[in-house]
Amino acid sequence: MTKDEREQLAGLIRDRIDAVTGDIDAFKAASMPVSPDNAIGRLTRMAAIDSKGINEAALAKARATRARLEKALRTIDSEDFGLCRDCEEPIAVARLMAMPEAALCVACATRRE
Ligand SMILES: [Zn+2]
Hints:
The chain has four helices and no strands. The protein has helices spanning 3-30, 42-75, 93-98, 106-112.
């Protein structure tokens, strides 16, 4: 990976972190406890409780993504950055640009599926 690519990737990771942080705030707002008051009907409340569960799953996923992105940003200047966790071959730059939090090369990721 060239220095330019590394810098481009670092900028991309920062943008992603901003975006996912926005998602996290939105999911947090949507995961507020469902009020038991009778202003909304029972079925509406059931639907709200249902989507609360979905939002909590999305929130957990967004947080995990942000943690991986932050780790990528912290380690981007290290020698090991961009090496596949399994086979230790360099991960294709195009793959990192599309998915900066990727820890596996395409071959290893495919093998695990
Ligand atoms: Zn690999």
